[in-house]
Every structure is written in structure tokens, then in C-alpha cells.
Amino acid sequence: METINFSDLDIAPLASTLGRTLETIYRPATGRVIPSETQVTSILPEEGVGAEALPGLWQEIVERSTRLAEPTMLGHMDTAPHPVAALTDCVVSALNNNLLFRELSPFASQIEEGLIEAFAQRLGLPVSSTGTFCSGGSIANLTALFVACGGFENIESRDRVRLHVSECHHASVMKAAAVLGIPKAHILVMPGDDTGRCQPSALDEQLSRHAGLHNIVAVVAGSTIHGAIDPLAEIGAICRRHDAWFHVDAIYGGALCFSGQHRHHLAGVDVADSVVIGPQKWMYVPRVCAVVLFRAGAEHDARFGVSLPYSVTGAAHRGQWGLQGSRRADALTLWTLFQVIGTRALGLQIDSAMALTEAFHGRLVDRMMTEPAHRPELNLQCFSLNGVTAEDEITARHRRMTTDAPGWFSLSRWRDRLYFRAVLLPPETTLTQLDELLSALCDS
Amino acid sequence: METINFSDLDIAPLASTLGRTLETIYRPATGRVIPSETQVTSILPEEGVGAEALPGLWQEIVERSTRLAEPTMLGHMDTAPHPVAALTDCVVSALNNNLLFRELSPFASQIEEGLIEAFAQRLGLPVSSTGTFCSGGSIANLTALFVACGGFENIESRDRVRLHVSECHHASVMKAAAVLGIPKAHILVMPGDDTGRCQPSALDEQLSRHAGLHNIVAVVAGSTIHGAIDPLAEIGAICRRHDAWFHVDAIYGGALCFSGQHRHHLAGVDVADSVVIGPQKWMYVPRVCAVVLFRAGAEHDARFGVSLPYSVTGAAHRGQWGLQGSRRADALTLWTLFQVIGTRALGLQIDSAMALTEAFHGRLVDRMMTEPAHRPELNLQCFSLNGVTAEDEITARHRRMTTDAPGWFSLSRWRDRLYFRAVLLPPETTLTQLDELLSALCDS
Q1: How many domains does chain A fold into?
Q2: Strands (E), B50-199
């Protein structure tokens, strides 16, 4: 191959092949959902094999990748995206518009602004709120905590920061604290209840003890292990009283704002100073797509952004905000999916997943060999097998499930004990499938 | 719409439409490359319009987005990706494999490891080097500088850090410093030559003055304005002598490692402690895709990673490394493109872009009305119009180019003066097109 000219490629036949490839991804398969690893023979070849090889390369990728589209692949907060979003992502990739500069993303900039405003409104934040899309929940939490610390405006007095976090905080909160240079001694983990939900009285006491310092409180709506939701309203009121920054990590639980039946779990999020939500989870778009929102809006311009010269259209460049520079137009994929499915259908799906989790919990109670570890708050459920307590035995069963079962739960550690864990995220998972998976696990 | 079941969608006809949509993206268009913004009427509709509306939605997105595939869209370090990469991105999005856990990305984890090893080798770094893909150059620079500061292992003594940066550093280096809590007084900008290239003697003197402190030197290979490359070999030797961390921001210039004729520009990168490269730029994959590499490998495990329990296969989870958690399998897209085109064809494209930039520089010299601002080092060229010195007049001409010309240069400020700037990144740009664009600009 002597050139890499874009016009050399005949796109139409490849698009048909792409369609067939996607059909194999979304078609239910038999056999294991997590393929074993085998050797990779070519990494950076000097001579390319040409576009004729693409169908084979895609097939290889599909066969050697984990089948997240499977309704029985329930191990993590991870599912395949809605196929509308996967297809649209191809348009987004080809256009490659860049949220850094408005000239490089006129429509994506407008859509991002529209979605940020609409999400803020859905969560009850004031119309003056601002925010940005960013590449995943960890970057979103880092951005929020950076701004909470003073952001670009004040980088001098970070030693006065005291970070109060839920017991069931996400790992990215601790990563962010390390990046920001907050020493471990200045991070206070609030004691939680049985699923790690923080106890407001403990926070109140902690904040009193640290009065006069720069207090930041980071709680979670939808924890990784149990889907626990901290008592947002009570915590918010305490933060207001102590003049502490109130951050809500709603990367997982934020989608509840679309549920008719369960949005009350988010009550209190409207007083947060910063909120992060993760469309890549329960809004069924491909990763990585997260959003950070700030209630203070323009008041935080200097904290949250590095100003850029205005665009040729006179509007602000989106690259002014946050920690990233060039950004992919993930907002376009999310927007397109919402145009196609609407918010009501998403809400119904969330309600249906919650009902399925209740039913699954019932099965875990009814079965002789299984025991749920908690009442489900969201669509996550941890459980154990009666009589299977040795870690060796638990991991051995889990390994057999990985290699032999047509589905997958994960193993999660909570307060030094290992549990099986199900996240009921794929839209087409049935109670029958859950029963079969449980039987396979019990009999293994 | 009552459900969002994935199986409701008939993928094949949509894939054909997708193919036609991509053809319109990659087909040369007439008219402006940057559309004007018009009102958006729907953001979060309650009722979706159904998948039948997808072709129309995609068409709207294409028509309202900037045409980066145009060979005359030369304003920034931004082009459309190779269509092979755009198509493959759809497979990557649908699979949605997650680099956080190995069980969620067995093949992508292997490919990422293979590419990191291969890039390190190409750059002359030792085989023990390690690294990770991350979501864009800003996160890559932040990750590198975080590790340079001590990473997760030492977050206590960041006040001893002195950060020495090139005059032509990327904005993300200063953003990263703010996030890390390095005060402005501890950031020393090295005086540069005419295009900002740092002068080794000045660095030597600076490091002597700060002996005994935690010195980090961040230089650039391919600056944003001129494509300037700092004298890496000399700087590397000085860093070694002073025991300073040597970071090379090669987000743009890193691709030179594939060029037969121009890889010598990177001489000295092999002694760097950390290097970042950006496949999303000159390797023609969609944004955001960057790679951070560390020479010390396992020695930096505790700086660079938060350990995770080993996977069911016994291998390390890729999510152990870096600042992100869930990550998209961008490595698969890059790998697929390399299998199709090979490294030699990419190198030829880079050489051809360098030759075109030389020829363009010649035209700027030959024309009466244009004057190049510098000799081209990479495929970037800044220039001015003789007799057009008032900023108002420069921006007015630029605005006319934006609305009327079938192509686009950007405006960039360097040492308080505005220049027109061309980045010759699209593979099919011709000297004739450049001539026509120059004529349009001169006559406007």
C-alpha cells in the first residue's frame, strides 16, 4: 500500500458487512460470554493487508471480545449500548467534530449545551447551572472535586481541604483526591449502614469538628457494589448548614431522573453544588460518556474554565470548560438516541429493571441455596450461596461460571467478604434467564 | 414507544443508510466547510420518533457539523479519521468492551498491551516500559505529570515540585499543573527561540538554580502553533545530569516515529521518563485516543496504578493503570487501521505531508502578498498577509474566509501577533488547493 487516501475506500459494501457484524454482536449466542485469551500475532505490521481484510478483522474482534449484549451478561455496570447509539457513533467518529473549538463542532456544541441545560433541569438544579460532558465518570468526579477545591481560580490553599466521603464511594473519588494532592489524613470516610449508606449524624459531627476548614462532602447515588443511594436531602441540608461543598456522584443513579416510579430516590440532589451523571451506564450509550454539572454557573467560570478567545460566531468554545481539550462529540450520540426512544421509554425500562430486581431478590430468598446480601435499592443485587463460605470455593465456582455458563455474575468484595453480584442492566433479561443462571451456579 | 429492546431494531437497512451517510461525509462538497448555527428544537423529547427517523437525524447531524474530511479544512490539528477507523469504531461502540476489567475486554486488553509495547519500542524506550491509552492528550499529560510528581505513591510533598516547561507548551500542561496543585510560582517557562523551541543552556541554568528540589521538565515535540520540536537529545542529557524528570509531549509529533525521512526529529525521546503520543492526530483514528508511556515500567507500579484484584484469567486488569476507570477500546480501532494500512504507508503519508508543507512555504515566499512566519518543521505553517497588520482587518478577512471560502485556515496568536495557520493533515490536500485558498484569502 503506497497511500492512505480516504477516497480509495469503497464504503458501501463495507457498510453492509458492518451491518452483518453488528447483527452477530446483538444476536443471542450460545456458549461462553467471556472468551479466553489466545495469542495475538500482529500488532504494528509494516505492510497492511488492505481493506479486503476488514470483514475478517471485525469477525476476529467480535469473537475475541466479551459479549456485553447478552441478556445474561450481568457482572458489572456494563451492557452493550442501544444499537441506535452504536450506529450513530459511527457517524460521530467519521465527522470527528471536536468540542474544543466551536468552529470544529457547531452542532455538537449546541447539542451539548442543550443537554446540559436539560439534565440540570431534570435534576432540579437552577437554570444558571453549567457543566460539561467528559470522558467517563472518573474524569467527571475529578473535575467536580477540582472545582470544589477552588479550581483554576485557587490552587494555593489545597492543604485546607477536608474531603468527607461515603463509605460506598467510587474508587475514582480516591484517585481524584490523590491527583489533587489531598493527603490521606485529610480524607474522612463516613461510617455507613449495612450497604454503606452514610449516616447524616456522623457527617454532621465530622463537619462540626472541621469547622473553619475547606470542607467538601462527596456522596453517591448508586454505589458500585449494592447500588446504595446516600440520603441526599438530609446530607444536603447538613452541608448547607456547615457551608460545605455538596458533591453527588450519580454516575449510575442519575438515570433515575427519567423514572416515574423511582425518581424520588434522587430527592435532595437539587441542592448539590456539583453532580456527575453517566449516560454510558443506564442511558445505553457507548462508553465513555459522563456529564459534570455545577449549580453556580457563571459564578464558577474562573474555577471551572480557562478562557479561550471567542469563536468566529461569537459564542463560547466548549473547550473552555473542564480538564480536557479535544473531546469527542458523545453528546450527538446521546441526543440521537433520545430523539429515537424518548425519555418516557427509558423511564419505563428503568422501572422494569427495578421490578425485575425485586423479583430476583424474591427468588434468592425462596431458593434453599441462595441468600441475598441486602434489599435491592437499584437494579443491583449481591448474594451468597449457603454453605459456600471459603473464598477458594467461591472463586472456584465463579471460575466455572466464567468458562461453562451461558452468562455471568461478578464477584465483589464488601467489608472483607466476597459476594456474587448481578447488575440487571440489559433491557431484555428475563426472570427465567436469572433462574437458569442461579441453577447453573448452585449446581456447579 | 413502550420498550427500548435492542432486538426491536432491524440493523441491516440502517447499516446501508449508514454507509450512504458516510459517503456524504467523505465525498468532497462545495460550499462552506463550517456551517452556521441554527436553532435546535428538540433536546429531551418525552416520546421518541422511532428508528425510522434515524436517516433524517444523521443527515441533520452531517449537514450541521464541520466538514473535517474536506482536504481544504486545514485550520487545526484535526482531520476526519481514515474511514476504516470510523467504520471500525462502530464495532468498538457496539461491543462496548471496557478496559477497566479484563473480563470485560479480553482482546482489547491484549491489543492495548501489544500496542503500548510496540510504541515504546518504536520510540526507543526500554522493553520494561509501561503505559496506558487514555481519553485524549490533556488526560495523557496530566497522567504523566501526576506520576512525575510521585503519583499515587507520594502525594504529600508536591510543594517541592518545580515544573520547567517549554515556551511552546500545550495548554493542557498548565491545566495539569493547576489540577495537581502546583502553584504558578513553581512553574518556570523556559525562554524559547523564534518558534518557542527551548534553549538548552537556559534549562541547564534553571535546573542548577533549583538543585535539590523535585524538578520536572516538560518539553514538546510538535507544538500547536508552529509544530516546533524542542531539542530532545540535548534536553534529555541535561535532565539526566540534574536528575530531573524528562517528559516529552509528543501528542502531535510522535507519529514521526513511522516516517523514514523525518524520524530523526525525535532523536533523544528514547531517554524520556514519560512520553505522550496522540493517535487521534497524525495516525488518523477518531478522537479521543492518546497514549502515555513510562520508561520505568514496574518500578512505577505504585506511582501509576491502584492495584486491582487479579482477573479470572490471572492477568492484570488494564484499569489498574492511570486516572480513568471505564475506558473505551480505542486500541482496537487503532490496531485495525494499522492492520489494514501498515506502518510503511502511514510513514509515506507523513513524508508526503512534510514535502507539501515545504512546497506551501515556497508559495508563501514567492507570492507578493504572503509571508511565512517560520520555516516549517512539521506539517504546520503560520503566515501573514503583507499590508494586513491591523487585527480588525485580519479577523475580518478570516470571517469572510469562514463564510465564503471552500476551505479554512485558522487564526493563531503567537507573542501577541495574529497569524493565519495551516495544518496539512488531510491525506489528499494538493498544492493546487492550497494555492486556490491563498488566492481566495488574498483577494477577500
Answers
A1: 1
A2: 130-134, 161-165, 187-189
